[in-house]
Specification:
By secondary structure, the protein is an alpha/beta fold. It has 31 helices and 33 strands. The strands form 9 sheets. It has a 7-stranded mixed β-sheet with strand order 8-7-3-1-11-12-13, covered by helices on one side. Strands 30-31-29-28-32-33 form a 6-stranded parallel β-sheet. It has a 5-stranded parallel β-sheet with strand order 18-17-16-19-20, with helices on both faces. The chain is globular, with a radius of gyration of 28 Å.
């Protein structure tokens, strides 16, 4: 059977799912289609023409190369297709977004046929996705006196590819659609369980609203009623897009409510309009900008005040909210992009300047942030070739410099890594900055989308600016099923060829490593002044400053070595008092959130800001527990301020783990891992010599807020509760409900426990082993009344536990142990009351493979308590995911319920929990 017939069979299968033909990205299939087009009598010719014109993915896909070559033949008259004139062929090339299409256009533009050359030049003047090989050809031709090359370069210097685009509409009519009340996680828009389909955009689009067909049909009906308006998706009384950093979530919203990017590229929509009472999650807002969309902070519910201006509270002490204006589904509003106001008819509702800054307006005009980034680089190239200054075309980057004001840690890092700013100018928070990126991470359930983004921006190799980049295999670690077998090797091959260190070797030369991506990135970050971009919301390192990002922003960082964002404000967190001996550091993490909310009257001062935590004495592994949780605090990022000695210890640990990766054979031909060890050695030498001590803020730095955590107030374990039965729906699943253990009275049933995810480290595994021995000595045996699933985050932790004897303890009490030679091929659906030793990776935390049984109450060390993430609701009971420390999880599964404080203390007696003593040094410069 030929490839085309296989494709037709697949089309018939997809019809049964209500799907269109899958977009073509393979050269073999498109080559067959072209042969059928050339055969005037071929029975499949008409369909082949449609597939060729309307169903081929652009960029650097192998199909794009074949398409560009055939279009060139048509333009040059080497083959005549009556349905595709040379003019139409040029139009097709203009929509192919770089790569082989640019090569073809340059071939023609720099060729001998003047008429065709001018037509090619006209198209090239609209293109921005040019790389060094392309610009080098243009520069060489220009220097050889080629007039067409000169004309193109002069156009680029004027940035006509941007200036000649249509202005954004002065008014955009929208109709509201409330997607949910309270925080809306990206799981609602792109469920983790559907991660396998993210690269098939039409198929993945069916999962929006967690496959809720009723809600999907409601949206479709609203669109029918308002065909002349855009739908604005809203999180009522909450924040839109919390949780994971999913381009797929924005893609789904755009697919249902956005506009078509190109008539010749299927199922790629852009420019969604989304909103939330409390705005948009910082990571999600960046993703909206990637597609040229608009994100609005509605502020349509505010705290009710009395005559003296005091906040009124309900019986539970919660602020009483009152509605300022309605955004109920079906409300027609006007986004005025000129006045930067939101209207209901003639009534002005609010100023939305923050949603329409000059930079964001450029993203909207250009169809996304990529085009602006590449456009600026192209204009700079052209100006340099012509020997002229760059003509101001794009909005001037805001540069805020405050005299006699010191710098926070993040301000220092941004100033060090800034590109294109005014020389010698010191920048403070609020400044718009392009920065060079040191470390980039791609994870496996969004990696296929990142690879597609790289293809569509015509990138073929990692930027030399990047010190190191890693492609993980952690999100598909639990179950090596047919979907994973089909997708992950292909992803690893692409990323390995692109220049990343990959968890799996395409040639199987080293054993697969399913380590949690954040843990690997934390190890390969070997400079406290580094900037890290990672394709996951928990890209929060305890060295440097890290930003979770969508798959597109990750692709841009890999391709260009740069990222663009305003310098964020910071909140300073310090500690006082002393930890109780029976408390775990995880309790300090939760108490930080609780005490912050208490200190600021329920306002989350962390949201959208960098948490600068003066951790001082905790090494990178342990400090990561704090920085990791800052994603749930809705912070944009976090920075750990460490003592010199602590940072050196952390870097030595990182070096040893990088060396393990080298010893496994994971380094590439560029010897990236070896280079990282060299960077670590240099940094250690700088600290020891006093040349460049560990990063600290200036004593006179200015913060948006300062939080002091009183360790003396933490007298019992703290639990983050999804509060699933709260009468106020907006208060459910927020991560802000932090309760003491005693709240549950030692009676709340626990159906399953989970020790794992990026929130745990080696110490947690040792605590688990010590607790099991403790319980056996106290009770004569260890008997689980609820299943306990244990997933170490990394293989090196397993190896270290084996060397130290703790893994043998865990094996003794377990009823299941992972086997890399025979990984699970299907997700577990039922659990026995025993200990499961699972493969290193994300496991239950991801929700895309393993889940608890519907309706279970889960006690977990994880980060996710969103509805349906770890556990779905059953017909009888809501699923709950309570988040706590390792000791609380373990004793809860032994008892089958939450322990009382006495039972907890007995279980941890004599055990070395993760301790923390605040630094006695002043961690400022």
């Amino acid at each position: 059977m030929n490839t085309y017939k296989e494709y037709i069979e697949q089309i018939e299968e997809r019809k049964g799912q209500g799907l269109s033909p899958q977009p073509i990205d393979g050269a073999k299939l498109l080559s067959e289609i072209i042969e059928q087009i050339k055969d005037i009598d071929n029975e499949f010719r008409e369909d082949s023409l449609k597939f060729f014109i309307y169903n081929v993915l652009p960029g650097t896909t192998s199909a794009a190369g074949v398409k560009a070559k055939f279009l060139k033949e048509i333009i040059l008259g080497e083959f005549i297709v009556k349905e595709i004139t040379p003019t139409f062929a040029f139009e097709q090339l203009s929509h192919m977004k770089g790569g082989p299409s640019i090569k073809v256009l340059l071939d023609i533009a720099l060729g001998d046929d003047v008429s065709l050359a001018k037509q090619a030049a006209t198209v090239l003047k609209t293109q921005v996705f040019l790389y060094e090989a392309d610009t080098a050809r243009l520069e060489a031709a220009f220097k050889n006196g080629n007039e067409i090359a000169k004309d193109i370069i002069e156009s680029y210097a004027k940035a006509e590819f941007f200036t000649k685009l249509p202005d954004i509409p002065e008014e955009i009519k929208v109709v509201t659609f409330v997607a949910g009340v309270g925080d809306i996680s990206t799981d609602l828009l792109s469920p983790g369980g559907d991660a396998h389909s993210r690269s098939d955009r039409e198929l993945h689009g069916q999962c929006i609203f967690e496959h809720n067909k009723e809600k999907q049909n409601e949206l479709l009906e609203l669109q029918k009623q308002h065909p002349d308006k855009r739908v604005m998706l809203i999180a009522e009384k909450g924040t839109m897009g919390v949780g994971s950093s999913r381009m797929s979530g924005v893609n789904n919203v755009a697919l249902w409510t956005g506009v078509k990017a190109s008539p010749y590229v299927p199922f790629i929509n852009i420019a969604p309009i989304i909103a939330g009472t409390n705005g948009i999650s910082p990571i999600f807002l960046t993703t909206v900008g990637v597609t040229g969309g608009i994100g609005i902070d509605l502020k349509n519910w505010v705290k009710k005040k009395d005559a003296e201006g005091n906040t009124l509270r309900d019986a539970d002490g919660e602020p009483i909210l009152e509605e300022v204006y309605s955004v109920a589904t079906g409300t027609v509003l006007t986004v005025n992009t000129k006045e930067k106001k939101l209207y209901n008819g003639s009534q002005e509702l609010m100023d939305i300047s923050a949603s329409l800054t000059p930079q964001k307006a450029e993203f909207i005009k250009a169809g996304g942030s990529y085009a602006v980034v590449f456009g600026k680089k192209l204009q700079t190239f052209a100006s340099k070739v012509l020997g002229i200054d760059v003509v101001p075309v794009y909005a001037t980057s805001k540069e805020i410099s405050i005299e006699n004001q010191g710098l926070t840690a993040v301000e220092k890092i941004f100033n060090k890594n800034a590109v294109g700013t005014t020389p010698g100018k010191v920048l403070h928070a609020g400044s718009d900055v392009r920065v060079e990126v040191n470390i980039v991470g791609s994870q496996d359930t969004t990696g296929l989308m990142t690879s597609q983004e790289l293809e569509m921006m015509a990138a073929t190799i990692i930027s030399p600016i990047v010190d190191g980049a890693y492609q993980s295999g952690c999100h598909t670690a639990s179950v090596w099923d047919n979907k994973s077998k089909a997708n992950i090797p292909r992803l690893m091959k692409f990323m390995n060829d692109f220049g990343l260190i990959t968890a799996r070797d395409p040639e199987n030369k080293y054993k697969p490593m399913t380590d949690v991506i954040h843990k690997v990135l934390n190890d390969i970050t070997v400079d406290d002044w580094a900037i890290i971009i990672g394709g996951d919301s928990h890209t929060r390192m305890s060295k440097g400053v890290a930003f979770g990002a969508d798959s597109g922003t990750v692709a841009l960082a890999l391709a260009t070595g740069e990222a663009s964002m305003p310098i964020p404000q910071s909140v300073k967190v310090t500690f006082k008092g002393e930890m109780k001996s029976y408390m775990d550091f995880r309790d300090v993490v939760h108490a930080t959130q609780q005490q912050m909310l208490s200190q600021f009257g329920g306002d989350n001062v962390f949201q959208g800001r960098v948490i600068e935590v003066h951790i001082g004495t905790l090494t990178a592994d342990q400090a990561f527990t704090f920085t990791d949780w800052t994603a749930e605090m809705k912070a944009k990022a976090s920075i750990c301020i460490s003592e010199d000695e602590t940072l050196i210890e952390s870097l030595e640990i990182a070096k040893s783990r990088i060396q393990i990766m080298i010893d496994k054979g994971m380094d590439n031909k560029l010897e990236v891992l070896k280079g990282l060890i060299a960077i670590a050695n240099k940094r250690i030498a700088e600290i020891k010599s006093g040349e460049k001590p560990a990063l600290t803020p200036d004593a006179n730095a200015k913060y948006a807020a300062e939080v002091v955590v009183d360790l003396d107030k933490i007298i019992e374990p703290m639990i983050a509760d999804p509060d699933v039965y709260n009468e106020d729906e907006s208060k459910r699943y927020t991560h802000d409900t932090i309760r003491p253990l005693s709240y549950y009275g030692g009676t709340k049933q626990v159906d399953l426990g989970f020790v794992g995810s990026c929130m745990v480290h080696k110490g947690d595994m040792k605590i688990l082993a010590q607790m099991l021995k403790n319980i056996e000595s106290q009770q004569g045996k260890v008997e689980f009344k609820a299943p306990l699933v244990v997933a170490p985050p990394t293989y090196n932790i397993v190896d270290e536990l084996k060397a130290e004897g703790d893994w043998e303890v865990l094996q003794r009490y377990s009823g299941f142990e992972f086997d890399d030679n025979d990984p699970k091929a299907a997700a577990r659906t039922k659990y026995e009351n025993m200990l499961y030793l699972e493969r290193p990776g994300c496991n239950l935390c991801m929700g895309n493979q393993e889940k608890a049984e519907p309706g279970d109450t889960v006690m977990a060390t994880s980060t996710r308590l969103f509805q349906g993430r770890v556990v779905k609701d059953s017909g009888e009971k809501k699923g709950e995911s309570l988040l706590s420390s390792t000791p609380v999880v373990v004793i809860s599964t032994v008892l089958g319920r939450t322990p009382n404080l006495q039972e907890y203390e007995a279980a941890v007696e004599g055990i070395n929990l993760t301790k923390f003593k605040p630094s006695h040094k002043l961690l400022v410069k």
